[in-house]
Write a structure and sequence with these properties.
Largest sheet: none
Shape: elongated
Number of strands: 0
Number of helices: 7
Structural class: mainly alpha
Radius of gyration: 19 Å
Distance between the termini: 41 Å
Length: 140
C-alpha cells in the first residue's frame, strides 16, 4: 500500500468538506442575500428557493458527514435539474450555456453518494456507536 492509498479516506473527507462548504455558500447567497449576493429569494420562489434550501441544508449535512449519501444524492439530482432546466436550453454544451458549475456539482455529489463520506464523518461515529460490542471472555 502506498502513501496515496493510505491517505484516501482523509483526502475524500477533505474533498467532501470543501465541496460542502462551497455548496453552503451558494445556499446562503440565495436564502440570506449573503456573500456578495444581490439579494435573498423566498424559499417559496421556484426553483431558486428550494435550490437554496437544498444547497444550505444538503451542504451542511455533507460538511458534517451526516446522512452523506442521501444528502449527496439529493444535491446531485438538484444540480442535474438546474443544468437541464436552466442552463441546457441556452446551448448544447456547458461551456456555451454557463452550466459548468451545475454539471460539475452534479457529478461530484453523485461520486460522494457512491463513495460515502470518507474519514471525519458523523456517519462513522454513529455507525461505531450502533455496532454491537463483543464481550471479551474472562480468564478463569
Amino acid at each position: 500500500m502506498n502513501v496515496l492509498d493510505r491517505g484516501r479516506d482523509h483526502a475524500l473527507a477533505l474533498f467532501r468538506i470543501v465541496v460542502g462548504v462551497l455548496f453552503v455558500c451558494h445556499g446562503a447567497q440565495k436564502l440570506f442575500g449573503a456573500l456578495g449576493s444581490k439579494g435573498a429569494v423566498s424559499i417559496t420562489s421556484w426553483p431558486m428557493g428550494p435550490a437554496g434550501v437544498i444547497e444550505l441544508v444538503g451542504g451542511t449535512l455533507i460538511v458534517l458527514g451526516l446522512a452523506t449519501r442521501v444528502a449527496a444524492l439529493v444535491a446531485s439530482g438538484a444540480m442535474a435539474y438546474a443544468y437541464f432546466a436552466v442552463h441546457q436550453p441556452l446551448g448544447l454544451l456547458p461551456i456555451q450555456n454557463n452550466g459548468e458549475l451545475a454539471a460539475v456539482y452534479s457529478w461530484v455529489f453523485l461520486l460522494l453518494a457512491f463513495t460515502g463520506p470518507g474519514a471525519w464523518a458523523l456517519d462513522r461515529v454513529i455507525a461505531a456507536r450502533r455496532a454491537p460490542t463483543t464481550a471479551t471472555p474472562a480468564r478463569v
